[in-house]
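[READ THE FOLD]
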Amino acid sequence: MKKLLLCLIILNVSIQIKSDNYTTFLKEGNKWNYLGIAYTTCCGSMTKTYSLFLSGDTLIENVQYKKMMCEHITEDMRRVSYAGAIRENIAEQSIYFRAANNVEKKVFSFNYQVGDTVSVDTISPLIKKVMFVKSVDNYQFGSYSGKKIVVSDTTYYANTGQKYSGHSYTWYEGIGSYNLSYQFSNEFHEFPFVEEQSELLCFWNNDTKIYENEKYGFCENAESRSGIENVNKPKIIVSPNPAKNILIVSTESEIKTIKIFDVLANLVLETNQKTIDMSNLPNGIFIVKILLSSNEMIEQKIIKCADN
């Protein structure tokens, strides 16, 4: 009995220590700006900013939440809408989000170790996608510090024995996710639902800017971009986009290789020719990666549509 009491005391102390060292997420005055890039169906894209903030408490089925609001900032308008309800379990170091459909799912958690499985999603009897912890590190942004966890996904094909690595998602304790994205698991998703993958631009606590993305150097952006455009290098044109069966890469640079990947990051075609036959590929969205002789990598999102 004494041993049991001692174990309970030790467990309680360890939980308290873990909670004391944990940087909490749900603080009034927290605000997040994410950059979203939406690709249109023909030759252009549009950027917008999602500005997320907390707005008081709400009680749903006797569970206490914070209301999360989202200001959608586009080129011609700004509007605020309810994103969902969010709560934090400090003992678990976990965040839960309840979208407008009233289904609660875990957003992210900071009690994982390297190699831990986050979720297993059965796509079909022969295909599984496994989310796992790739790395655990620490970060320091001004007065904010805590764990930095990178979660990655791998898709396994039982019939071929092949596996493919896909996307990675970065979580900062006390700040949240570096990436907002589509739901990537039946059991686990990031918050809130948005139309495209987005990157964190800036994070504030009250009027203090804690984090700014060095890649962009701004906290708000909304514009439209038309014309066939490569997202990295303007000297290369990939056309037509959408494509039917033939894709043409126009450039004066020497090409080492061209690889085309599907949305699950599977390599579906590889060539070094500037005229590419895509007739054997299904309709959909693909990523074209062009490796130049200078070892520069150019990446372009394209759409294949047989009825364009």
In short: The chain has two domains: 30-225, 228-304. Residues 285 and 303 are 5 Å apart (CA to CA).
